[in-house]
Amino acid sequence: MPPAPGRPAAPPPGATAAQPPAPGRPRPRRRAPPCAPQAVHKQPGGEPLLDVVTEEGQEVAGLPAGDCCLQNERDDTVDDLVKSDFLHEPGILHTLQVRYGLDSIYTYSGNILIAANPHKRLRQLYGPRMMAQYRGVPLGELSPHVYAIAEQAYSAMMMDEARQAILISGESGAGKTESAKMVMQYLAHRAMPAHQHQHALGGASVARTGSGGGGGGAAAPTNGVESAPIEEQVLESNPLLEAFGNAKTSRNDNSSRFGKFVEIDFDSGGRVAGASISTYLLERCGAAVAVWAPSRSYLFFYQLLEGGAASFRYLHQSDVYTLTDVDDAQEFRHTLEAMRIVGLQQHHVDAVLRTVAGVLHLGNVDFTLSSRDEAAVAGGAGIAALEAAARLLGVSDLGLEAALTTRAIDARGERIVKRLDAGAAAESRDALAKTLYARLFDWLVAAINRKINSLGSGGGAASGQQQRRSIGILDIYGFESFDLNSFEQLCINLANERLQQQFNAHVFKGEQEEYAREGIAWSYIDFVDNQDCLDLLEGGAASLGVFPLIDEACRLPRATYQARLRWSKDLAHTLRTRLAGQPRFGAPRRQQHAFVVDHYAGEVCYSAEHLMDKNKDFVVAEHAHLLGSSSLPMIRELFAADAAAAAAGGAAADSIAASAGSELPSPKRGRRSAFMLSSVGARFRKQLAGLMGTLGRCQPHYIRCVKPNAESRPGSLAPEYVLEQLRAGGVLEAVRIACAGFPTRKPFLPFAQRYALLLPEAAAGAKGGGGALSLPLTPSGFIDCQLDGWQLGRSRVFLRAGQLAQLEGARGRRLSAAAVKVQSAWRGMEARRQLRAARAAAVAIQAAWRGRAGRAAARQLRQDRAAVRLQAAWRMHRQRSAYQLQRR
Ligand SMILES: Nc1ncnc2c1ncn2[C@@H]1O[C@H](COP(=O)(O)OP(=O)(O)OP(=O)(O)O)[C@@H](O)[C@H]1O
After folding, report:
1. How far apart are CA 7 and CA 221, in angstroms?
2. Which atom of ligand 1 has the smallest separation from the CA of 146?
3. What's the N-to-C CA distance of the chain in angstroms?
4. 785 and 754 in contact (C-beta within 8 Å)?
5. Which residues are annotated as a binding site?
6. What residue ranges line ligand 1, CB within 6 angstroms?
7. In total, how many domains does the chain have?
8. What range does the domain containing 828 cover?
9. Could you tell me the pTM of the whole model?
10. Per-residue pLDDT band at 296 (split at 50, 70, 90)
């Protein structure tokens, strides 16, 4: 009997395509639409064939069941993918697509939250009232939400006194920063005592968003720097860092150009006690000096200038000056307010503004060639810019000019001052501007940290405790693969490989622990371990990796531009020859200056050009000398370590390199004009190792942000586009792991309560006595349902993917059969009752009727008898009269 048209009541046996894909790479990239079966044809001894209607409404007949990805029933209500009847890529995408169309942007996949960027404000989803709903509620009881993940972390921290980490990842524009801010806002709200919480509900928002209006924390008044509550200071660090570290890119108008890990400490009462921020400035502020449309430079430049951006070279390289719906003047006031709230003194704020202005004026210094092919500052405008930059940075204009146009080198013990050509001077200017901006950003982070950390320890925080009670929030770039991939992508993808390894280990470990605890026999599948990829990138026991080889190449002395280009080619050659044969490495034949790395999320082709330039992290000694002796204390502070190293020469540089964990020696003697503190790659890897160490001590929670379509359009989710992101975010891997085991787990009691009706009568009879737990739990003995993938754990029933659908289908059929019985019994009873009532009514009517007629007949009878009597009397009278007449 074919099921009714539409969705299947229950999957036909063997018709699901929810089999886990075979372990190992490569994963299949099948994208068949989910379909609803219309009819099942069983073939003797063979696979059943299905007639189906596809997602697009097309009818297809006679498909082998194994080739079909059956559609889940009521996708919109499946808020956890793992609970789907059919776990396959098309099903997952269909569920996400249906939910997204209904503005249900959050969906769980087990403990992972998938957050699809709505690209529109969904006010009903956020705010103090919504936060109050999630307060204290375990994960899964309410609709999926970023607040639920934050709540899970908070309660786990309070219960286990353990460090927690919420790892937020996704590609640019997927909504990581927004999610991170929401998590922080929720934690600030959650940490508030109940009476303040009520106050917040009554009106004031718990926290200002980056660009939102006032409000502030609902705690103490904020009329002075010192009185700003710690929660507010932590929250206000977001817009401040965004102003200096975010820029418009082709993919996101407010793209964070840095990764961030904010660790919020709580005291034993669960109140925010302090926080610390670590940033991972992957591109070392390249956007400060070189951007092209449709990108824009860092937000603060435009806020500061408000309309004057076109006068500065670093900004007018791209003709995008304004952003839709962004008022730079208002944003500038917000940034200043944020500086005040995080506790920057006015003289520090002034110094920050001067430095930013100094960078901008520096960019306007032009060079020409003098008669001796040497760089000279060009024209009146160039000189005016030089003077302005020198004044703002607290140095002399002559000193600045010399630092930009000359280099001192030691040759055989002799110090020679060499004048640069115009191109090299321009490079020197940009290098100084980049360094200044990067140092300023680091300074801001350090200043915020000093403030929020010191407040924390002052407040009797967890600092003194052995076990740190904290929640870290990691907002870092997701996996990247473009047409042209360079050093930034190499670093980002290294970070993602590290995080993926940790993620796999966590998901696997969790599964394994659960099975062991429950005594479930499970042959652990071989999950894809990416250690070989990490070895390729960072070097393993057998060989050097990509990063160490780039560092090695960077140790060569610096020469001319042409020579550097040649080295790039040599670097490609070195990488291709020394890493040839490694499992994850490829050398494309057509691109001799490129190499390929087979990452967990797919292959990425990297260009070797500019890798060395981007890896070198040095400060020109002349720049360090000059700015280290600035008349402005903050500028001196930015370059204090470099100036000391420059003064002490190579030895000091060596010691700084060592203290910075550098793997690079300082440049050789005789080339001391620029010295390297460490390579960007080495520094980044060291930071990453620190981060991974921290994360290793934390209990992780995952939020995977997804960009629904490339155009950032609200309302539509492009399945293929999202599929790549789910793969890159490891969501599909986690689902695969779940599918390979027993993804559905139900505690005995609810399981028994729900499915006891499927047991034969005799077994079900036991229910009355010993309670549901005493039921003979033998799922194989169920009526009308054949389960072939289940195990009984110690406290739960474990089912393989798709088995729950079998149970639900059988339960549905049984319930509907029972409903039919109940209905027919009720209808019979009702009909009988009506009949009885009708009969009684008829009798009553008849009786009534009969009563009235009888009375009328009696009356008539009486009348008739009276008439007869009258007539008789009359006749008697007449006869008597006649007789009397005769006698007379
Ligand atoms: N939950 C949300 N509700 C409404 N809009 C959102 C939400 N999440 C993200 N957005 C929108 O998407 C934009 C991009 O988000 P966000 O800056 O958080 O992305 P990102 O992943 O951090 O990107 P990048 O890596 O480039 O910094 C935001 O500016 C906002 O307009």
Report:
1. 58
2. 1
3. 113
4. no
5. 170-177
6. 117-119, 121-122, 170, 172-178, 252, 254-256, 477, 705
7. 2
8. 742-857
9. 0.76
10. confident
